[in-house]
């Protein structure tokens, strides 16, 4: 397989604009954030196997679509990255046998590993020579592999591609909780599940469609401020970087929070407020207070966090977030805990008046 590097089209998505390249094979797709020839010597990289159930029809009983979406978000934030998407349903056995395995899980109470064993199937027969070929064509011999599956890393390592791991963070739901646990316990995956299940550990949040994602500025909860409805906190925050109402409105009308952030970044040097560093925290606090006041369900979710520390978990912003080692200021987490304390105090005051 060989990429046609001059035959690509833009792939506009809610996450950002990617490029899709011609592989010459219907069963293999390649997309990149930015120019594929400029992703760098150690890019973010995911080799992803198709899952029609979750990616097309929205099935909730796995984490396939969640992982693909998270990988794309990581690449959009960094501004570069590469995904090789392969049609390998059912861990390489095809859609027909996958349906039989899921049927066995539903009717016989089996987990995913037991269902494959009952059908006499190898647990994971996938291979990734096309991914290796793409990387070799681009002259890349080292990647940051976005995956929880050590088999993928082992395949790439065996074929001359060095890997370092970047975990994805599954959204645990009633429909997929047992499946995720089985992937770790029986298939050797390394999903970071324990942190989400511990009641005393810090709450790490970042992506809006992952656990505790309601705390993200990208969560789809509009706020009413300054006489206008802002689609998300991120829209409002980014728009306040400008004094000119025209620029504020341009940001407010962006289709997604990611596009609002990108648009503000592009405008800031020329039109941004000179006092922004001094006022940004107060503006963020104003938006957060409105979000949790105007959405009582979110206030309940925030209060359900008890006294746990809230941390925006990211390596990309050491002012608003923290990478987990304490080096970041985690100001967004601090402001959320301030809002939590305000709601708690208000509740105490209200009860005292009754």
From TrEMBL:
<dbReference type="InterPro" id="IPR032677">
    <property type="entry name" value="GTP_cyclohydro_II"/>
</dbReference>
<dbReference type="InterPro" id="IPR012816">
    <property type="entry name" value="NADAR"/>
</dbReference>
<keyword id="KW-0547">Nucleotide-binding</keyword>
<keyword id="KW-0686">Riboflavin biosynthesis</keyword>
<dbReference type="Pfam" id="PF00925">
    <property type="entry name" value="GTP_cyclohydro2"/>
</dbReference>
<keyword id="KW-0464">Manganese</keyword>
<dbReference type="InterPro" id="IPR037238">
    <property type="entry name" value="YbiA-like_sf"/>
</dbReference>
<dbReference type="InterPro" id="IPR000926">
    <property type="entry name" value="RibA"/>
</dbReference>
<dbReference type="InterPro" id="IPR036144">
    <property type="entry name" value="RibA-like_sf"/>
</dbReference>
<feature type="domain" description="NADAR">
    <location>
        <begin position="205"/>
        <end position="344"/>
    </location>
</feature>
<keyword id="KW-0378">Hydrolase</keyword>
<protein>
    <recommendedName>
        <fullName>GTP cyclohydrolase II</fullName>
        <ecNumber>3.5.4.25</ecNumber>
    </recommendedName>
</protein>
<dbReference type="GO" id="GO:0003935">
    <property type="term" value="F:GTP cyclohydrolase II activity"/>
</dbReference>
<keyword id="KW-0456">Lyase</keyword>
<feature type="domain" description="GTP cyclohydrolase II">
    <location>
        <begin position="9"/>
        <end position="163"/>
    </location>
</feature>
<comment type="pathway">
    <text>Cofactor biosynthesis; riboflavin biosynthesis.</text>
</comment>
<keyword id="KW-0342">GTP-binding</keyword>
<keyword id="KW-0460">Magnesium</keyword>
<dbReference type="Pfam" id="PF08719">
    <property type="entry name" value="NADAR"/>
</dbReference>
